[in-house]
Amino acid sequence: MSVTLKAELDIAAALAPLASLGKDAMRNAWRRALKKSANWVKGQTAKHVSAEMHIAQKLVRQRLYFFLRSADKGKVWLGLNAVEAHRLGNPRQTRRGVSVGRHRFDNAWIYRSKRGSKNDGKVFRRVGKGRMPIEGVKLDWADKGEAAFSKAAADIEARLMVILEQEVKYEILKATRHAR
Q: In which domain of life is the source organism classified (predicted)?
């Protein structure tokens, strides 16, 4: 499952001071503002999901990507697949199951082979009553991740305008320094 952020903005007022500068300066300011806004969305989403779900921010940031589609368009993508339990921290076997960070998984175990395997350290649990149908234990965070992403999307327009104003000022400063 993925979520895409789309915002329509009227930037004519913010770009008015750049009229004296060239198109390249305006394009550079806009591109930097897009990238910084995308990083802001990443940070806000990671902060809110981490606080609610007790997941490391690093895990959330790894699932957020920013694509600069052209000189004036960008896209933020968030992957909402469930997180495997062993990625939440150091799994510990307990009497009732497995404990990873602040999360508890009943009737689960940590797989360890004698010869070494790619599944070593992963957390599994039985699906049925038989011996063999097993599944990897995962933590679903799609609902809270999508809510945090939507909240950041609602605030992106104001943040983008603040960053764009800073970048415009920087371009004007660069132009005046070269003029001396």
A: Bacteria
